[in-house]
Design goal:
Number of strands: 9
Strand content: 15-25%
Order of helices and strands: HEEHEEEEHEEEH
Strand order of the largest sheet: 1-2-5-4-3
CATH topology of one domain: Beta Polymerase, domain 2
Radius of gyration: 21 Å
Oligomer: single chain
Low-confidence stretches: none
CATH class of one domain: Alpha Beta
Distance between the termini: 14 Å
Length: 228
């Protein structure tokens, strides 16, 4: 870990120590911390309000379905039970991830919290960052993650009455219904899917080339510091 990340990591972990002992790692050129869902709201308040941190801007909130992640390299998964496909590196199937920016200190951080497999729910951070409103609605719509305390948690991308969550790994690739305009009824109607069902084979996890140069520079910097 380079000096920059080491100093930022120490600053974050020491400030949050009174609430939870968090571990910090560096991934894709950004400091990442994992926190419990029970303490997420309080930790986010500290990340925003502590002067030495001042993460006043939320860049993104996204949900992740880790079923099949790093498990079936041969392309074979248990579609009947997505939880059986969760990698040992993942604590649960679902996670909610937050990307924060400190404009004052020019720092970025990634916060991840693991959620229950059967009922993924966590406190909303809209009272802390109002910009999280639509991000949380999207994660709810696409992955079915519930954000407790959200002022208006309803679907934002799918149609009214839509059943299921399209970005879950066990959602049918061809969908569940087809929609078309019926000239006789003069309205849009829904019909059973006529497309042939396809198997969604997880792709092999590969390093993102966009970060390769940055990661190499970081490794060289770490090696220089160790040799001193």
């Amino acid at each position: 870990m380079s000096q920059y990340y080491s100093e930022l990591s120490d600053k974050v972990t020491s400030t949050l120590a009174e609430v939870e002992a968090v571990q910090a790692t560096v991934a894709y050129g950004e400091l990442t911390i994992e926190v419990s869902k029970e303490n997420l709201f309080q930790i986010c308040q500290i990340l925003r309000d502590a002067q030495e941190l001042a993460f006043d801007t939320i860049i993104d909130v996204c949900g992740v379905d880790y079923s099949g992640y790093g498990v079936a390299k041969d392309g074979v998964t248990n579609a009947a039970d997505p939880k059986a496909n969760v990698s040992k590196d993942c604590k649960t199937r679902y996670a909610s991830v937050y990307h924060l920016l400190s404009v004052k200190n020019n720092h970025r951080i990634r916060v991840r919290t693991w959620l229950d497999d059967d009922f993924p729910m966590v406190d909303s951070v809209v009272p802390i960052w109002s910009g999280a409103n639509w991000f949380e609605r999207e994660a709810f719509d696409m992955l079915g993650i519930l954000y407790s305390g959200h002022p208006d948690l309803r679907r934002i991308l799918t149609d009214y009455g839509f059943i299921g969550h399209p970005l879950r790994k066990d959602f049918p690739v061809v969908g569940q219904v087809e929609m078309r305009y019926d000239a006789n009824k003069q309205r849009v109607i829904y019909e059973p899917v006529t497309l042939e069902e396809r198997v969604n084979i997880p792709r092999v996890i590969r390093d993102d080339n966009r970060y390769a140069e940055r990661m190499q520079e970081q490794e060289r910097s770490d090696q220089k510091e160790e040799s001193v």
